């Protein structure tokens, strides 16, 4: 259930093992013209993500359209820059387009005769005893049920599959929101399509209680994300007019402002997204249902690992299937036992890294320590 990043990759792994897969996706096909999902937003892809893509043979293809980011570049309020390498010997994380990556995975799924894609199909519920899905055609509103043998819930942080499991006995669940939201903004490409900031870097404007980041796109632009409190003196609530936004950016992000000609329009057009951590257990229901990706472990984005961890779920599941064949009961049980501690650790690191990115990266003591470490 769900043809997002994790669902579409998982379908390739399952088909590679000889299984017949049908993917149901609530939204329209993002590859079709006019899809709002086609909007260019990028993600940081790192080692565990690469390993999972290489497992279905598309590492190279994606690497060709990814931009390596070798270091963080911090912008202080005076426009001064400082730098921290991400690793040694040219190690990098990569900026990749979310829509581009999803499109590539869907193209591959579509070419695979074992995979059927069904768009505009929303999961309304699941009969866990009878192994039936309840679906609604989002174009006509018609409802129907389909049987399943194994159901993989890759329908994201607000998973309907998880929703059905939440109503079973002794299912643990928690969700917690930050007091911060995020807004996507754009740094325009230069006049000749050149990158107006260092291309091969992740840019951060740490400001203590909040921050902005920017990741490069292939066309010379950067996607910025402002992580900002909902309420307070410096907050979304406090910026209600174009003049207030202009004055705020002039004071707080003076070197970025001239590169953001559409700021005033974008600030009011683009929605504020919320930031949630979801923890739950178990992830499996008998040998029939398994949750993966954000459906089982949605985390805040500050460690850049949500998708990477979801991709790693696919690698781990594939390894277990290699080992135990179609003994789904053993595979699901081992999967959840093995992955849950890792997912919990990732959730903690992501929350911790919020503080580091908005505050500690700007601390001269931290910079010095990083310098020593990298030597
Ligand atoms: P999703 O991408 O949410 O896909 C779920 C799919 O299921 C969707 O297509 C949805 O339409 C479908 N669906 C939902 N409900 C239903 C239903 N009822 N019926 C049918 N279909 C349904 N991760 C990184 O690794 N690196 C990053 O740099 C990074 N940056 C991020 C920045 C931001 C601002 C945010 C918010 C997240 C970021 N993440 C990042 C996290 C990453 O986006 C998620 O971890 C990833 O998208 C999870 O993939 P998924 O396939 O599990 O879920």
Automatic annotation (TrEMBL):
Domain of life: Bacteria
General function of this protein: Catalyzes the hydroxylation of L-kynurenine (L-Kyn) to form 3-hydroxy-L-kynurenine (L-3OHKyn). Required for synthesis of quinolinic acid.
Reactions performed catalytically: L-kynurenine + NADPH + O2 + H(+) = 3-hydroxy-L-kynurenine + NADP(+) + H2O
Domain FAD-binding: residue ranges: 2-347
Record's protein name: Kynurenine 3-monooxygenase
Known EC number: 1.14.13.9
Gene: kmo
Family in the record: Belongs to the aromatic-ring hydroxylase family. KMO subfamily.
Cofactor(s) the protein requires to work: FAD
Swiss-Prot/TrEMBL keywords: FAD, Flavoprotein, Monooxygenase, NADP, Oxidoreductase, Pyridine nucleotide biosynthesis
Source organism per UniProt: Hymenobacter fastidiosus
Keyword Flavoprotein applies: yes
Pathway(s): Cofactor biosynthesis; NAD(+) biosynthesis; quinolinate from L-kynurenine: step 1/3
Lineage: Bacteria, Pseudomonadati, Bacteroidota, Cytophagia, Cytophagales
């Amino acid at each position: 259930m769900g043809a997002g990043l994790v669902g579409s990759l998982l379908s390739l792994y399952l088909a590679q093992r000889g299984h017949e897969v049908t993917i149901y996706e609530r939204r329209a096909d993002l590859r079709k013209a006019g899809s709002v999902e086609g909007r260019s937003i990028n993600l940081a892809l790192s080692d565990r993500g690469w390993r999972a893509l290489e497992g279905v043979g598309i590492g190279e293809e994606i690497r060709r359209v990814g931009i390596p980011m070798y270091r963080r570049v911090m912008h202080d309020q005076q426009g001064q820059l400082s730098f921290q390498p991400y690793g040694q010997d040219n190690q990098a994380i990569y900026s990749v387009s979310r829509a581009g990556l999803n499109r590539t995975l869907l193209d591959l799924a579509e070419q695979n005769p074992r995979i059927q894609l069904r768009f505009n199909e929303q999961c309304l519920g699941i009969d866990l005893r009878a192994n039936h899905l309840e679906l609604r055609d989002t174009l006509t509103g018609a409802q129907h049920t389909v049987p399943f043998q194994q159901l993989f819930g890759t329908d994201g942080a607000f998973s309907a599959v998880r929703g059905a499991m939440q109503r079973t006995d002794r299912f643990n669940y928690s969700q917690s929101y930050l007091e911060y939201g995020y807004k996507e903004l754009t740094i325009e490409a230069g006049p000749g399509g050149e990158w107006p900031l260092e291309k091969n870097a992740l840019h951060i404007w740490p400001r203590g209680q909040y921050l902005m980041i920017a990741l490069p796109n292939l066309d010379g632009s950067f996607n910025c994300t402002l992580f900002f409190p909902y309420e307070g003196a410096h907050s979304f609530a406090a910026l209600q007019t174009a003049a207030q936004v202009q004055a705020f950016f002039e004071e707080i992000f003076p070197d970025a402002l001239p590169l953001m000609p559409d700021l005033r329009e974008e600030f009011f057009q683009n929605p504020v997204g919320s930031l949630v951590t979801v923890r739950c257990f178990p992830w499996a229901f008998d040998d029939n249902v398994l949750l993966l990706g954000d459906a089982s472990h949605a985390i805040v984005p500050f460690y850049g690992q949500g998708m990477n961890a979801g991709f790693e779920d696919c690698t781990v599941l594939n390894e277990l299937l290699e080992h135990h064949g179609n003994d789904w009961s053993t595979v699901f049980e081992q999967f959840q036992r093995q992955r849950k501690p890792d997912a919990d650790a990732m959730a903690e690191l992501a929350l911790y890294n919020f503080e580091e990115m908005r505050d500690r990266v700007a601390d001269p003591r931290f910079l010095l320590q990083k310098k020593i470490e990298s030597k």
